[in-house]
Write a structure and sequence with these properties.
Blueprint (H helix, E strand, L loop, with lengths): L1 H18 L2 H26 L7 H23 L1 H6 L2 H6 L5 H30 L5 H26 L5 H18 L11 H8 L2 H14 L5 H4 L4 H28 L2
Helix pairs in contact: 1-6, 2-3, 2-6, 3-6, 3-7, 3-8, 3-10, 6-7, 6-12, 7-10, 7-12, 10-12
Subcellular location: Cell membrane; Membrane
InterPro entries: ABC2_TM (IPR013525), ABC2_TM_bact-type (IPR047817), ABC_2_transport (IPR000412), Nod_factor_ABC_transporter (IPR051784)
Keywords: Cell membrane, Membrane, Transmembrane, Transmembrane helix, Transport
């Protein structure tokens, strides 16, 4: 119970911080809308015809996964700010597992990303993306899985970064290429060999693919919009989740002890 209380307390703290930051909520809603509405719409007008599937829906599912993944990863990395304010040291002297602390952070950022993605779903309804009870029952759990995966990725990144200034330089470098390599805006099977290889080693690729499986499951477009088998996606995400979580937490805690 002590570990569970620690997880829930840390998660609630992150959710409370979001609800008090209206600018962050607004930004979290606006940027995905720009990706889907402006970028997706312009690409749809130019290259979306003749693909055999609705390109705007394709972009919507990709951005849906990206927002879950990116929001959670960026939120977990805010532990660097806690470190610089000495709040993380107060956390790590608490008589609870270090993994419970990190998991609580990931859970909190997953709740945060869920609020942001709710706005994306509403926007999807507005632009004509088709939803059903079955689709939503699969899409939302897939998005949550992408969020937890992104949180673990964020733990691995923050474990190797020493300051917010360094993070501001590194995080776009490790994330933005993944947005274009993971198939958010274009099917990865159409990539040239070098980009196809880079796509396969980008964690976000598997989060996007599993979300598209959730949306297109049972539809004739499934084979055209997904790159791997859903079993492959899940196994890769599970393996990388535990690798990122355990190694990242170990390195982060060791760095805290050496301060």
């Amino acid at each position: 119970m002590r570990e569970l209380n620690a997880v829930l307390t840390i998660a609630f703290r992150d959710l409370t911080k979001l609800l008090r930051d209206r600018i962050r909520i607004l930004a979290g809603l606006v940027f995905p809308v720009i990706f889907i509405g402006v970028l997706g719409g312009s690409l749809n007008a130019n290259i979306g015809k003749g693909l055999g599937f609705d390109f705007l829906t394709f972009v919507f599912t990709g951005v849906f996964a990206q927002v879950f993944f990116q929001s959670s990863a960026a939120g977990v990395i805010s532990l660097i700010q806690d470190r610089e304010e000495d709040f993380s040291q107060e956390l790590f002297v608490a008589p609870v597992s270090r993994y419970s602390i990190i998991f609580g952070k990931i859970l909190g950022e997953t709740l945060v990303s869920s609020i942001q993605v709710a706005g994306i779903l509403i926007f999807g309804f507005i632009i004509g993306v088709e939803f059903s009870a079955k689709i939503l029952s699969l899409l939302i759990p897939a998005g949550l899985a992408a969020s937890f995966f992104g949180g673990a990725f964020g733990v691995m990144v923050l474990a190797n970064v020493g300051s917010q200034r360094t993070m501001a330089q590194i995080f776009p470098f490790v994330l933005f290429p993944q947005i274009f390599l993971s198939g958010v805006f274009a099917p990865v099977e159409n990539f040239p060999p070098i980009l196809a290889f880079l796509s396969k080693i980008a964690p976000l690729t598997y989060a996007v693919d599993v979300v598209r499986y959730a949306y297109y499951s049972g539809s004739p477009e499934l084979s055209k919009v997904t790159a791997f088998g859903v079993t492959t996606d899940i196994l890769v995400m599970l393996a990388l989740f535990f690798i990122f979580l355990f190694i990242g937490t170990f390195l982060f805690v060791r760095k805290e002890r050496n301060r």
